Amino acid sequence: MRRPLDLRHVISPGLRDLIELANTHDFDRVQEQVRNLRGCSSPVNLHGWTITTDQATKEVVRSYRSEDEPTGRLLTTCGNRRSSRCPACSRVYAADTYHLIKAGLSGGKNVAETVRDHPRAFVTLTAPSFGPVHRNTDSAGKPRRCRCGTQHADDDPALSTPLNPATYDYAGAVLWNAHAGQLWARFTTYLRRALAEHLGMTQKALNAALRVSFAKVAEYQKRGLVHFHAVIRFDGPDGHTTPPPAWATLDALKAAVGLAVKRARLTIESDSIGERVIAWGRRFKVDPITALGDGELTDSKVAGYVAKYATKNAEGAGTVDRTLMCRPCAGRGYVRGPDGFHDRCPDCDGTGQAEPIKALPIQQHVRQMIRTAWDLGHLPEFAELKLWKWAHMLGFRGHFSSKSRAYSTTLGALRNVRRAWRLAQAEAARAGHPTTDETTLVTASSWTYLSSGYRPGEEFLAAQVRHDLNEAERIKTEGEPWL
Q: Which of the 8 DSSP states describes residue 125?
């Protein structure tokens, strides 16, 4: 029987845990699990089992139990799309998004290659103005002196903040963010109506001859408002496999976008702040997407652009990447006691905030948007928006990326292909194992969530994996160093 290790002289908890892991019965398997995560920042810890049986022969083809692992648990990637939370998983998400968008522009992934001949456009929709802000360029992007009399540098923190915070419409800005997802949905409806009107036909006739497919991603401007970048494509009535009619041109798409931007709007009524109209800003762009070209919006450039912003959050606007809602009381400031009465939440002292808004290391403009979202969320007329939950997102609560059903493949399909490939690799490693008919296999499993994150010793191993991956990427880009 192995004597327990005496590690009292090791001060570092991480090093002490690493020594314990190194003395397990299979340290190679511990390292393999961490390597397979490819640098994931906060893996999911699972406990359970899975068994795959061939129903025809009743033979157990594959079986796995987390109890057989040296640490007694299975580590799997967190899958977080946000680069601020997990750079490793966000890179996988960005790669999947790239292939999803690229397939809808040039084919592949079960999408017909003829889509590259369909009219396609890269559309940018922006938010309206809620008050003048500090700027160093004009509407054409040329340098100019700000209205405050200063020529701001590009890294000036004052850029995109209000010239007069006292008159800036913070309530309108937060409510616009909160309803931006609904406004996009309304835009897609009005786009089809506007297209039918521009072409002089009924909407029923348009739908019978043409399908409009799209994929969009949200991006935060520095002023804290989201705007949308979208790929819009014309297809035939059966989707990407059929060409659109000859009259479905890029000019028709530009005209329809212009009409839809003007007409898509939402009206909000509130006793506290009055009536508000949620509408798009006057500035929008409709740029053609080309299959080839230098310096133009090509298939690859557009796919890369969308994939880049699919992994971003609101940190580009200077806010924080975590919810400010106190979880024990769900942001309400009170918990229901045993007697059924509302008791002050002891975790947040009745504020409902996991951390004080006034203590956040952010600019005053962003702080005011967060405070406005928090206050509006507790008004009865806006309770369903749960703005206190999305205050750190400056009110935006929609999907960062989405697509129409017929645009291209799905992220789930891409993940299934990757999972099947890994399973095939594992099967190939089992030398001499007879091939089986996949159609007769049945898998049963049971899994329980334990926690998230690494053990202290595993964190050392993960740091080494990240270093090796970064070094391999550097060598791939820059080449081997001179000796």
A: E
378 class by beta-carbon count within 10 Å (0-12 exposed, 13-18 middle, 19+ buried): middle
Q: Cβ(265)–Cβ(186) under 8 Å? A: yes
How many C-alpha atoms does 405 have within 13 Å on its Cβ side?
Answer: 3
State the pTM of this model: 0.84
d(CA 328, CA 334): 9
Residue with tokens 């072409």: 199
Backbone angles phi, psi at 31, to 5 degrees: -65, -35
**Rounded to an integer, what distance in angstroms lies between the CA atom of residue 410 and that of residue 407?**
9
Residue whose C-alpha is closest to residue 119's, from 243, 300, 297: 243
Q: Give which of 290, 289, 269 is closest to 278, Cα–Cα.
A: 269
201 Cβ contact partners less than 8 Å away, ≥ 6 residues apart: none
CA distance 413 to 435: 25
Task: Report how far Cα 94 is from the mean position of its chain's Cα atoms.
Answer: 9
| Distance of alpha carbon 383 from alpha carbon 390, whole angstroms | 12
Interaxial angle between packed helices 13-22 and 27-36, expressed in degrees from 0 to 180 and rounded to the nearest 10? 120
Helices (H) and strands (E) in the chain, counts: 10, 13
The Cβ of residue 403 has, within 10 Å, a number of other Cβ atoms equal to: 22
Give all strands (DSSP E) within 248-386, no chain letters.
265-270, 274-279, 284-288, 334-336, 342-344
Per-residue pLDDT of the chain in tens (483 residues, 90 and over written 9): 456 666 667 678 888 888 888 888 899 999 999 999 999 999 999 999 999 888 888 788 888 899 999 999 999 999 888 888 899 999 999 999 999 999 999 998 889 889 999 999 999 999 999 999 998 888 777 888 898 888 888 888 888 899 999 999 999 999 999 999 999 999 999 999 999 999 999 999 999 999 999 999 999 988 999 999 999 999 999 988 999 999 999 999 999 999 999 999 999 988 888 889 999 999 999 999 987 665 578 889 999 989 888 888 777 788 888 889 998 888 888 888 787 788 899 888 888 899 999 999 999 999 999 999 999 998 989 989 989 889 999 999 878 889 998 899 888 888 888 877 776 766 665 555 555 555 677 888 899 999 999 999 999 999 999 999 988 888 887 776 655
Using CA atoms, how far residue 433 sits from 297, 304, 430, 439, in Å, is: 50, 41, 6, 17
Greatest C-alpha distance within the chain: 87
Question: Using CB atoms within 10 A of its CB, is residue 292 exposed (0-12), middle (13-18) or buried (19+)?
Answer: exposed
Query: Measured between alpha carbons, how far is 53 from 63 in angstroms, rounded to an integer?
Result: 9
